[in-house]
């Protein structure tokens, strides 16, 4: 039991369960999942589906943070990816063409990779602090996305593209399957190769890593590329789900939620040890929190405040020092 | 020395996950005494100090200060109660001025505003008390490590550290009642040590109780009145220095007779059968670091670098490893010219480098012992070719055993290990890369006699197996004992190369260090 409570993901997991359970009081059918037309429906599925962009962005953010950096440009990269894909699909003679959609997807992801290289080069080669280096693309990126779409919202009606964000496969939402695949691939890539430990070494101590002969530059650039690619996929899911490219709404402020998810997941902002599973949990928790505010009917104007309170409670529950104070008081009270 | 202890610790128990660091340890400290805390690495000395200063909580036992039970929640509280610490590695802010470092957290103020002039005056006064005349407005990093250490001591003895609002019967008006010096001399040269000891004696006369930790036995015998010996987290005993001969002390510390040290001497001096040159530097130099020098290191040879602190020892080592870029000269490996652009290039040519700053440039604290040991090998292979887990476990198990790394659990974070064991982890990291030239900068600094002898023995064995070793140390004795050839540095210039034959002794080398090349 103590081994369980000491696990660094124990308290976030408890908060997630509490959040989900609290929904039942307001929506009794919250936990029921039904099979309709070969699709699974239910609030839990909604939680998963709505969390997909954030899980992806948090995944990339985790690796960047592990190198000791941060990536503020992920929201803008989402917007650019969505804009480029919708632009290309809108120009297709037949929007139903699978090949055309695939080409658009590949182009969007490829462009994101280039943007990731841009971030990585600014940080490693030019030596700009990550928060400033990625701020450049965060600001400029929305501009690029708007240039691509001429400042308009581009609507598409392409069934293959729609599959990405709103489709179902084997009773499950395609977006959830895509994210699961990316998570598994990322976990295998970082832990089965030496990427994970080398990134952690670079983040924990750049000087010691250099003297140990680690090529920090390449690793760091790869981390930014990974973050950008994850953001691009998130952008595609988002824009597919609404069947349009909205350069202002796509990924708006998602970088902050992603950073929060990473921190909840137990990765320190100073770099070093990282936990992909933790970040996934953190991202799902944040989405569950959003949904909970709707189900329990928190007035729209106080949603952000409610969210802040839960985040504070969560952070306190993760602090060993705070728990020690609470427990000490309790034992003193019991013995008195 | 009064008969009532100012500090009394009884039955102290402290555990970390998987390790009992202290098991029922008692410790007493009297006003006006210098008390040495002795023990090998991992014996629990640092843990005891951290428990005393409130860095760690305790799992059992109690601490009394002047008869009152105390429980410090952190170093600040301890300091306010008159317990100050100067740590082994200087824990100050290098980017702030000397004056700020001395006074930080207790700046003289008026209406909430810092009185800068008064602060500088106070810092200068305190430093003058230690016979130091520094520009207190200069940033701390512009001074050598030795001076920084003195600044840390000045900070610790600042009377303002313990506010006058607390009545202090033992030493009214004074700063610290208890001063803890954790390896204060590990980066000081002989004259600086003498100066420090004067300061210690002065504080002692003023009734300050001083807890002194050092691995230099001679220093302990010079300054300490009594000593407490720990081994593996348990108390071995408390002795008067005068009544405990040095050999007996060492036996108590390591729990077995020490014979390794004497053995080594003759092995190296006469077993010199160096092979082909492995690395040769010609006119290698870097402006502001070290003047151009020539140096050849052969297989099977231990080359020692001797010189005072700041004489350019580390700089030579770093140039040969490509950690810094030379701006003149060239390097040949196996007779072929190479450019050592970065550590990585040097590594590919079979050069390994263990830095003197093992905490910041060596080990990576949050990674496990296993990950730290495999790191250099993994870096050489690149990320796409991970060292298979089974092979990692084999290598790690072999070196944990060969170097006696304790605790022998390869999965705990390396920051939980003591300094000596961290050094061994760092050596293991390089040894598994099977280097041809091993550069070790101060590998025995701040570690205990037992581990020190083991590391020295290891270096001799490695050279015996054909490896070239460049050995950098501030301890002349050690350089003399191990090296076949000694390169003497003075004022960032390599001034003489001395074959270490029978006639060579410390005096001979000191002469060169003091006067430059012999005529």
Automatic annotation (TrEMBL), chain A:
GO terms for molecular function: transmembrane transporter activity. It is found in: Cell membrane. The chain crosses the membrane at residues 9-27, 47-65, 96-118, 125-145, 165-189, 219-238, 250-269, 276-298, 304-326. It comes from Pseudosporangium ferrugineum. The keyword Transferase does not apply. InterPro entries: ABC_transp_permease. This is Simple sugar transport system permease protein. Its main location: membrane. Keywords: Cell membrane, Membrane, Sugar transport, Transmembrane, Transmembrane helix, Transport. It is a multi-pass membrane protein. GO terms for cellular component: plasma membrane.
UniProtKB/TrEMBL annotation, chain B:
The keyword S-adenosyl-L-methionine does not apply. Keywords: ATP-binding, Nucleotide-binding, Repeat, Sugar transport, Transport. SUPFAM superfamilies: P-loop containing nucleoside triphosphate hydrolases. One of its GO terms (molecular function) is ATP hydrolysis activity. SMART domains: AAA (SM00382). InterPro entries: AAA+_ATPase, ABC_carbohydrate_import_ATPase, ABC_transporter-like_ATP-bd, ABC_transporter-like_CS, P-loop_NTPase. Residues 7-257, 262-516 form the ABC transporter domain. PANTHER family: CARBOHYDRATE TRANSPORT ATP-BINDING PROTEIN MG119-RELATED, GALACTOFURANOSE TRANSPORTER ATP-BINDING PROTEIN YTFR. This is Simple sugar transport system ATP-binding protein.
């Amino acid at each position: 039991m103590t081994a369980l409570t000491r696990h660094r993901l124990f308290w976030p997991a408890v908060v997630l369960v509490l959040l989900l359970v609290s929904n039942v009081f307001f929506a009794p059918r919250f936990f029921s999942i039904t099979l309709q037309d070969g699709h699974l429906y239910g609030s839990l599925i909604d939680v998963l589906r709505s969390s997909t962009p954030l899980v992806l962005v948090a995944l990339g953010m985790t690796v960047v943070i592990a190198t000791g950096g941060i990536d503020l440009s992920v929201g803008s990269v989402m917007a650019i990816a969505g804009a480029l894909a919708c632009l290309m699909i809108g120009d297709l003679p037949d929007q139903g063409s699978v090949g055309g959609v695939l080409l658009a997807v590949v182009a969007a992801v490829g462009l994101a990779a280039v943007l990731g290289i841009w971030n990585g080069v600014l940080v490693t080669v030019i030596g700009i602090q990550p928060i400033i280096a990625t701020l450049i693309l965060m600001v400029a990126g929305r501009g690029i996305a708007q240039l691509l779409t001429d400042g308009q919202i581009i609507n598409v009606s392409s069934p293959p593209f729609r599959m990405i964000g709103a489709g179902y496969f084997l009773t499950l939402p395609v977006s959830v399957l895509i994210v699961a695949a990316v998570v598994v691939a990322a976990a295998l890539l970082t832990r089965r190769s030496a990427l994970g430990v080398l990134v952690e070494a670079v983040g924990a101590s750049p000087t010691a890593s250099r003297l140990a002969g680690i090529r920090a530059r390449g690793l760091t650039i790869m981390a930014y590329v990974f973050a950008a690619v994850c953001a691009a996929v998130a952008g595609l899911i988002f824009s597919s789900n609404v069947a349009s490219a909205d350069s202002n709404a796509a990924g708006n402020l998602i970088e902050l939620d992603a950073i929060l998810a990473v921190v909840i997941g137990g990765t320190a902002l100073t770099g070093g040890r990282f936990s992909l599973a933790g970040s996934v949990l953190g991202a799902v928790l944040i989405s569950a929190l959003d949904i909970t505010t709707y189900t329990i009917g928190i007035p729209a104007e106080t949603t952000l405040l409610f969210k802040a309170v839960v985040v504070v409670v969560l952070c306190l529950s993760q602090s060993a020092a705070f728990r020690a104070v609470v427990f000490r008081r309790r034992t003193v009270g019991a013995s008195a | 020395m009064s008969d009532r202890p100012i500090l009394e610790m009884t039955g102290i128990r402290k555990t970390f996950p998987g390790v009992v660091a202290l098991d029922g340890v008692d410790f007493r400290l009297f006003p006006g005494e210098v008390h040495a805390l002795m023990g090998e690495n991992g014996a629990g000395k640092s843990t005891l100090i951290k428990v005393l200063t409130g860095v760690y909580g305790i799992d059992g036992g109690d601490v009394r200060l002047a008869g009152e039970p105390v429980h410090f929640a952190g170093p600040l509280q301890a300091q306010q109660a008159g317990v100050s610490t100067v740590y082994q590695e200087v824990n100050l802010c290098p980017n702030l001025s000397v004056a700020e470092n001395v006074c930080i957290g207790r700046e003289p103020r008026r209406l909430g505003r810092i009185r800068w002039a008064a602060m500088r005056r106070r810092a200068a006064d305190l430093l003058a008390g230690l016979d130091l005349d520094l520009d207190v407005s200069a940033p701390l990093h512009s001074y050598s490590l030795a001076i920084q250490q003195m600044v840390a001591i000045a900070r610790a003895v600042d009377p303002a550290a313990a506010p006058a609002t607390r009545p202090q019967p033992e030493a009214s008006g004074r700063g610290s009642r208890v001063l803890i010096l954790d390896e204060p001399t590990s980066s000081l040269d002989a004259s600086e040590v003498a100066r420090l000891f004067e300061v210690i004696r002065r504080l002692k006369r003023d009734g300050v109780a001083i807890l002194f930790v050092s691995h230099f036995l001679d220093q302990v015998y010079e300054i300490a009145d009594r000593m407490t010996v720990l081994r593996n987290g348990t108390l071995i005993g408390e002795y008067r220095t005068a009544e405990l001969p040095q050999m007996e002390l060492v036996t108590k510390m390591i729990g077995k007779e020490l014979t390794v040290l004497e053995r080594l001497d003759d092995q190296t001096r006469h077993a010199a059968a160096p092979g082909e040159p492995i690395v040769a530097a010609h006119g290698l130099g870097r402006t502001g670091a070290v003047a151009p020098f020539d140096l050849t290191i052969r297989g099977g040879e231990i080359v020692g670098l001797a010189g005072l602190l700041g004489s350019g020892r580390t700089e030579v080592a770093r140039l040969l490893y490509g950690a810094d870029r030379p701006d003149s000269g060239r390097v040949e490996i196996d007779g072929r010219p190479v450019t050592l652009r970065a550590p990585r290039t040097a590594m590919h040519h079979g050069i390994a480098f263990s830095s003197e700053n093992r905490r910041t440039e060596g080990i990576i604290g949050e990674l496990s012992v296993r990950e730290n040991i495999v790191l250099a090998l993994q870096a050489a292979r690149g990320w796409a070719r991970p060292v298979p887990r089974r092979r990692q476990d084999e290598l790690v198990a072999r070196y944990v055993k060969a170097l006696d790394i304790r605790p022998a659990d390869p999965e705990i974070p390396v920051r939980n290990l003591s300094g000596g064991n961290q050094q061994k982890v760092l050596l293991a990291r390089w040894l598994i890369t099977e280097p041809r030239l091993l550069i070790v900068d101060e590998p025995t600094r701040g570690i205990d006699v037992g581990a020190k002898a083991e590391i020295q023995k290891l270096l001799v064995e490695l050279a015996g197996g054909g490896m070239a070793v460049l050995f950098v140390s501030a301890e002349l004795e050690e350089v003399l004992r191990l090296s076949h050839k000694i390169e003497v540095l003075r004022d960032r210039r390599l001034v003489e190369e001395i074959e270490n034959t029978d006639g060579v002794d410390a005096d001979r080398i000191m002469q060169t260090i003091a006067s430059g090349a012999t005529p």
